[in-house]
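Key result, reporting period 2: structure in, sequence out.
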């Protein structure tokens, strides 16, 4: 009987943990959509985010980063979307 109760309690803890994890994923997705919308409104924000990402990569690893994507393409893509 004790084992059955312990198994049931463990299953309930697992269920609650999954619900909490799912809520966190939902909140993260919402924030990413908000950030994407905000960055879509400003090409400068997108460029700054690009530079921040490159800076983060460079500080974590002692290596050379080659990023062969011209910034003018970002403007072109944004113009095409409109």
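The corresponding designed sequence is given below.
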């Amino acid at each position: 009987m004790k084992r059955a109760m312990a198994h049931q309690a463990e299953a309930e803890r697992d269920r609650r943990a999954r619900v909490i994890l799912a809520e966190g994923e939902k909140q993260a997705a919402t924030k990413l959509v908000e950030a994407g919308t905000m960055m879509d409104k400003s090409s400068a924000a997108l460029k700054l985010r690009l530079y921040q990402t490159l800076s983060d990569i460079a500080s974590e690893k002692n290596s050379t980063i080659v990023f062969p994507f011209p910034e003018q393409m970002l403007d072109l893509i944004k113009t095409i979307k409109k």
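The two ends are 66 Å apart (CA to CA). The chain has three helices and no strands. This case is discussed further under Risks and Mitigation.
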